[in-house]
Design brief:
By secondary structure, this protein is mostly helical. It has a domain at 27-79. It contains one helix and no strands. It has one helix at residues 29-79. 0% of the residues are buried. The mean pLDDT is 80.
């Protein structure tokens, strides 16, 4: 029985480039700029989406309020019996 012991030498070129040799090092200035720029684009996109949704909700609410006012006025006119003063418009 002969046992073989193999010495494995790891060199920087034998390590995959996606594996960080020094994970504790801070990102480079270029990497930080890329991240900041992506963050800014993402923030602008979501701000725009939020603004569009808020406008949509406001328009829907205004339309619903108008429909409610119209229905209330129609109900008051239909049930008005002439004995009491007419409700002021928009009340």
């Amino acid at each position: 029985n002969t046992s073989h012991s193999t010495l494995v030498t790891i060199t920087p070129s034998s390590i995959s480039p996606s594996f960080p040799l020094f994970p504790f090092l801070p990102p480079s200035i270029a990497e930080q700029r890329v991240r900041l720029s992506a963050d800014e684009r993402r923030r602008e996109y979501y701000d725009e989406q939020r603004d569009e949704f808020e406008n949509y909700v406001e328009e829907e609410r205004d339309e619903q309020d108008e429909r409610t006012r119209e229905k209330t006025e129609q109900w008051r006119e239909f049930h008005y019996d002439g004995l009491y003063p007419h409700y002021p418009r928009g009340w």
